[in-house]
């Protein structure tokens, strides 16, 4: 007797909605804030999220008056309406992010902007509140533009289809010695790895293992200048494109990524260090960025120093750098000149 499906068989269906989006973080430094006239609008320079529509954005600050709120608007200059959202906050004189504001998703046009109320002008100017640093007002915004959405539907019978897990498989490959063909040694610890992965992920390993160098012939490489823990994290990234412990070891990992020319990992470390920068560590961060040729991090650290120069100059690390590394001090002051020049040219 031929078999047939029962009418009560369950078909499990899924639908997925996915939005393509672009995001940027913009920091606006306003000098001599107390000199700005009341009830006036000032506008930042233009910036972009990199969205496909190519529209430009500007932050606009309404300075308010003594007892009234200052307000912030995100003004859009583009050919087509977009859907966007924004988070904004103030950076106080200690470098803390305060007074967070959220502007939810809405349609934005040239005529309709994102906006929020910030804080009263009198509160901003009150020294006891520490909102300003040497009369410098620093505003940040994280702007997200939703570009388009796609919808897909998938149906499976008898449970969810399980496909290959490339990241998981490569992670397992890292811990499985069966097919390893090279040993990386740091101190007393040895890591079994695969030449193909190392060659594809690092130009330095490629040169080491494809030319007739000692490491290629002997199948073992002694690595210096890093700890076993850092090498393990670097290998994890090379196999899985993830660095789960980056927040804890970003400085050491940046040096390793620079040494072995792993560009994506280097960029990730720069971004991580930017998020944790402070008055106490900014000089050391600048020196590290200079050593590792990390220009993005170096520029960010120099701009941070310019904004918080009064407090930074009190630190031991600044005094030591001012005595020993005149090139970095010159770099910081050149950043000030470039910033003022770009503002004057607007």
UniProtKB/TrEMBL annotation:
Residue ranges constituting the BTB domain according to the UniProt record: 180-241
Pfam families in the cross-refs: BTB, MATH_2
GO biological process: protein catabolic process
UniProt-recorded name of the protein: Speckle-type POZ protein
Signal peptide span: none
The MATH domain, residue ranges: 23-143
